[in-house]
């Protein structure tokens, strides 16, 4: 399906756990004491004064938070955001607010995916950002129309194929405009969600925010630190996204590099079906994937084509090295005519449920991303398409044609520096296929007080995936404020 390639990756909340590996980590300094806090804007006083009315929701506490639709007009329309809390299992010392990424993914599953080992004295709070799930969701195409979109070639080779792709993306954008409540599409940006987060902090009774953001959730954290730096207590940004506003090419390259790392592993294993070196394995897999454009593999009444296969491969690559044997098995089966496993993996990454319906984040994620990121049109978009086509995954995470058709303009890009925030812990994995390690290094250099912890491994995101070194560093920082030393790494 064409649209999903414009969606940055999210934390793998259902994926494989990485193995606990050996570590190299030296703890560094502590965060300095915070400065005095400014008073909130008087026009927003009624929002900051609200208290959350908690009720029981299946073993968790749930509530709703009221925020302005448009922060430029706080006396106008409001939105209600869904909030979920998992209470501390020990004597409570504070709250950690978490976001798993996306964009467009519900964060009210926080109590289920965030690893609280060693952090049992903290409440864990997640919320559905504006435009998602139970928080005034964006609504776009019907499931039937989305399934029809799966037949559109996402890597067009002819003018007719390109016209069909652009027509479907225009249809998608038009449906979002028609089915979403009036005014909402222009106000689901991550910058606005960062402002919502500060109102949530106040409603939780926290003077300062402790926050963990994964994948696209790191951009939300970075913008919060930019706007409300003095209100940050601790902040962990795991697998940071691009802070330059130009992510498409480097994300494609990261997926390509991850496939090469898989190819190197397979080539060194006895009986690898595609050769005994990185080059031979990679070339064989690349040739097979490209060949699916003309010769897809039937799977019941569906087909595994180039786009769905690339998404399936990417889904396995998100799991890192522990998922590589499963990826090898899924590709071998697909080449033998049974592509069900690879197609199912691709469906997960594209938000398609087994019953043929689609997750709400497919529309919400597109809406958020198109508001957040600088818009490319015309010759600039064509140039990106040409550059992206040089990567095997170029059309999976490449030209942002979906946003070119979007019915509302992007918000002004703000590069977060977070000059007023204390030190922020940034965790970057060398072999991350979704958010390249270079983005972590750039984030650490861009933020005024960013401290980078390098993870010499594979897979998307690092905390809570079984690496004892990473987990200890994050937990020590959250509990004590002690940061890894400059240049620290985990293996």
UniProtKB/TrEMBL annotation:
Record GO terms (molecular function): hydrolase activity
InterPro entries given in the database record: AB_hydrolase_1, AB_hydrolase_fold, Pept_S33_TAP-like_C, Serine_prot/Carboxylest_S33
Residue span, AB hydrolase-1 domain: 95-279
Alphabetically ordered keywords of this record: Hydrolase, Signal
Record Pfam families: Abhydrolase_1, Abhydrolase_4
PROSITE patterns in UniProt: PROKAR_LIPOPROTEIN (PS51257)
Gene3D superfamilies cross-referenced by the UniProt entry: alpha/beta hydrolase
Highest taxon of source: Bacteria
Coiled coil feature spans: none
Domain Peptidase S33 tripeptidyl aminopeptidase-like C-terminal: 401-490
Protein family membership: Belongs to the peptidase S33 family.
Matches recorded under PANTHER family: 2-SUCCINYL-6-HYDROXY-2,4-CYCLOHEXADIENE-1-CARBOXYLATE SYNTHASE, TRIPEPTIDYL AMINOPEPTIDASE
Full protein name: Alpha/beta hydrolase
Originating species: Propioniciclava tarda
């Amino acid at each position: 399906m064409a649209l999903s390639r414009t969606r940055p990756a999210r934390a793998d909340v259902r994926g494989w756990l990485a193995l606990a590996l050996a570590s190299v980590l030296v703890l560094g300094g502590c965060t300095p004491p915070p400065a005095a806090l400014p008073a909130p804007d008087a026009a927003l006083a009624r929002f900051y004064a609200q208290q959350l009315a908690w009720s029981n929701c299946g073993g968790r506490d749930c509530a709703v938070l009221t925020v302005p639709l448009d922060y430029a007009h706080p006396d106008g329309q409001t939105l209600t955001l869904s909030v979920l809390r998992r209470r501390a299992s020990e004597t409570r010392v504070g709250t950690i607010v978490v976001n798993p990424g996306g964009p467009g993914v519900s964060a009210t599953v926080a109590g289920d995916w965030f690893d609280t080992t060693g952090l049992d004295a903290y409440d864990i709070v997640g919320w559905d950002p504006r435009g998602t799930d139970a928080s005034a969701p964006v609504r776009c195409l019907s499931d039937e129309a989305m399934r029809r979109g799966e037949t559109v070639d996402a890597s067009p080779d002819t003018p007719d194929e390109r016209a069909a792709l652009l027509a479907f993306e225009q249809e998608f954008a038009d449906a979002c405009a028609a089915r979403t409540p009036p005014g909402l599409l222009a106000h689901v940006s991550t910058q606005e969600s960062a402002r919502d987060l500060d109102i949530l902090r106040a409603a939780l009774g926290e003077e300062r925010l402790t926050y963990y953001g994964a994948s696209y959730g790191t951009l939300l954290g970075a913008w919060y630190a930019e706007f409300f730096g003095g209100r940050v207590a601790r902040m962990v940004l795991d697998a940071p996204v691009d802070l330059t506003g130009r992510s498409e090419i480097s994300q494609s390259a990261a997926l390509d590099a991850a496939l090469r790392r898989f190819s190197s592993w397979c080539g060194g294993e006895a009986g690898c079906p595609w050769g005994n070196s990185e080059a031979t394995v990679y070339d064989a897999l690349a040739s097979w994937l490209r060949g699916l454009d003309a010769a897809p593999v039937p799977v019941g009444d569906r087909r595994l084509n180039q786009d769905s296969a690339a998404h399936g491969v990417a889904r396995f690559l998100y799991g890192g090295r522990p998922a590589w044997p499963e990826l090898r098995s899924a590709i071998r089966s697909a080449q033998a005519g049974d592509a069900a496993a690879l197609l199912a993996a691709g469906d997960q990454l594209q938000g398609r449920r087994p019953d043929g319906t689609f997750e709400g984040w497919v529309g919400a994620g597109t809406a958020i991303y198109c508001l957040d990121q600088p818009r490319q049109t015309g010759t600039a978009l064509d140039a990106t398409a040409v550059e992206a086509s040089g990567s095997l995954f170029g059309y999976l995470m490449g030209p942002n044609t979906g946003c070119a058709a979007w019915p509302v303009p992007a918000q002004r890009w703000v590069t977060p520096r977070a000059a007023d925030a204390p030190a922020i812990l940034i965790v970057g994995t060398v072999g991350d296929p979704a958010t390249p390690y270079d983005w972590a290094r750039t984030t650490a250099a861009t933020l005024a007080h960013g401290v980078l912890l390098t993870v010499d491994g594979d897979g998307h995101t690092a905390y809570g995936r079984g690496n004892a070194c990473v987990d200890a560093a994050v937990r020590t920082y959250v509990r004590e404020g002690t940061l890894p030393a400059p240049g620290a790494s985990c293996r």
